[in-house]
Amino acid sequence: MKCGGGFVYRDRVDELSPRTLAIVAGRPHGPGEPLNTPIVPASTYGAGTDRAYARQNGTPTWEAFEEAIGALEGGHATAFASGIATLAAIVDVLPLGAKVAVPTFSYAGSRGLLAHEHERGRLVVSEIPPGNTNGWLDAAREADLVWLESPTNPTLDLIDIEAVTGAPARTARVVVDNTFATPLGRQPLKLGADVVVHSATKLIGGHSDLLLGVTIAADEELAKELRDSRSRNGATPGALEAWLALRGLRTLPVRLAEQASTAAKLADLLARHPAVTKVRYPGEGIMIGLELGSAEAADKVCASLALIRHATSLGGVESLVERRATMEGDRHVPPGLIRFSVGLEDPDDLWRDLERALSADA
Ligand SMILES: *Cc1c(COP(=O)(O)O)cnc(C)c1O
Question: Does the keyword Transcription apply (predicted)?
Fold first, then answer.
C-alpha cells in the first residue's frame, strides 16, 4: 500500500510554530525515502548535472540542515565549518577598508578576528558599548557593517536590535549573532536584520560534540555571495557535523525550554546567596552571569564545583562554568564574573552543587 507524499511543510511555514518547524523542516518527504537525510560523505558527483563538487555545490546533508535552520529563521541558510567561519565570510564579502561596529562586550573570538583585520588595515573597526543606543544609531548611518550580539557573550548585555535595523538613514548591513537567543527566542530577520549567524557548536548542536556555523541571509543575492565565499575559502562543514547539528536542532525547543526554566530558578536562588555580588540574567535563555567579590573567590567556586564542569563553551546538555576574564580577549570583563551555561540536569542537584561550592568560598 502506498502512503501519501508526506507533509509538505513549505506550504504552511507561516502557520506552523517554531517548535513544529524544528521537527518537520529539512526532511525528505517522498514515499520510500528515509525520514532522515543520511550522512553523505561525498566530495564529488557523477558528471552531467549542476552538482559537480561538494566544496562548490554542497551535499544533501548540509542542505538538509540549511533548509531546517533557514525555515526557523526565515531566510536563506549556508552552513560553515564553525561559527567564526561565518564572520570570516561576512568580512570576506566587504570592500577593503570597510567600517565595522561591534559591541565592546561581545564574543572574544569575533572581536579578535575584527581586531586582526583592523591591525592589518583591511577594516576600520570601532567598539560600541551594548547599551549605547545612540552610538549604534550613528554606526547604522556611518558604518558599512554593524555586528550585533544580544545578549552579549559573556556579560549578557542587551542591544535594541529593532532600533538599529530601523535607524533613520541606515546604510550599514546589520548582522545579528543569534547564538545565545536561538531562533526560538528571537528571529532577527523579522526585526529587519540582513543576516543572522549562529555558532551551531553551542545550543543548536546542544551536546558539545561538534563545530559548525551557519549564516541565514534575508536576501538571496547576499546568500549567494556568502556561499561563494565559503567555496572560495573552503570553509565547508563536515558531513557528520551537519547531520549532528540537524539532529540537535530537532530537540532544541524542548532542551531550551527545560534548561531556561532551570536557569530562571537558579538565577533567583543565586541572587539571594550572600557570597554572590551580582547575577546577570536577562530573563530568558540558558546563560547566567554570576559575579563574586574577587577573581580568587570566583576561581575557588569554579574549582569547587563537582557536578557542574569547569570548561569553556556553552549550550550543551551539561552545565559548564568558566571565569571569562582568564580568557585572552576577555580581560576587560569583571574579574569575578563566572559565565554559567545551565544544562539539562535536575535543578535540585545543580543547586546543591552550587551551594556547596559557594560556601567553600566563605
Ligand atoms: C562560540 C561562539 C562563537 C564562535 O563559534 P565557533 O563555533 O566556536 O567558531 C560566535 N559567537 C558566539 C556568541 C559564541 O558563543
Answer: no
